[in-house]
Amino acid sequence: MTRAATLDRHAPTVLSVLRIVAALIFMAHGTQKVLGFPAHPNPPGLMTLSGVAGILELIGGALLALGLFTRPVAFILSGEMAFAYFIAHAPRSFFPVLNGGDAAILYCFVFLYLVFAGPGPLSLDALGSRGRSPR
User: Fold this and answer.
1) Number of neighbouring beta carbons within 10 Å of residue 7
2) What is the 8-class DSSP label of residue 101?
3) What gap in Å lies between CA 115 and CA 77, rounded to an integer?
4) Domain ranges within the chain, ordered by starting residue
5) Do residues 86 and 35 lie in contact, with contact meaning Cβ atoms separated by under 8 Å?
6) CA spacing 20 to 30 A to 13: which of 19, 87, 105, 130?
């Protein structure tokens, strides 16, 4: 077996690992905004734009970490990150490294990838689809 074939064999599992790690790190942004952990210097109100983003990050991040409703949740979170970039970061500077929006761009495209790639085998979505005939 070639190295490429070995790597290809593990690609679905690594997709799940990418989803889980990205979701847990993303979820930390929501816990900070909604739960105040880790400490947030100026916690937003829940009915503000930042508060709604925090709710999406907390709940959406948890759903992605579990791999539940992965594709629709990833689609929503990808859109949230695109929106966040253009509302909060792009007005500061054209360059992402200067406007602090590089994480938002990265999350946007990782989540967009998950819309198309799915959750991988280590997910509740995959567990729920076992036993069903493929369409």
Assistant:
1) 10
2) -
3) 10
4) 12-118
5) no
6) 105
The token duo for 45 is 């109100």
Under DSSP, the state recorded for 89 is: I
Alpha helices (H) along the chain: 3-30, 49-66, 70-84, 96-99, 102-117, 124-129
How far apart are alpha carbons 96 and 79 in whole angstroms?
A: 17
Q: Which amino acid is at 68?
A: L
Per-residue pLDDT of the chain (135 residues; tens, 9 = 90+): 899 999 999 999 999 999 999 999 999 999 999 999 998 788 888 899 999 999 999 999 999 999 999 999 999 999 999 999 999 999 999 999 999 999 999 999 999 999 999 999 999 999 988 756 444
What Cα–Cα distance (Å) separates residue 129 from each residue in 38, 62, 67, 110?
A: 36, 20, 12, 23
Contact by Cβ (8 Å): 119, 65: no
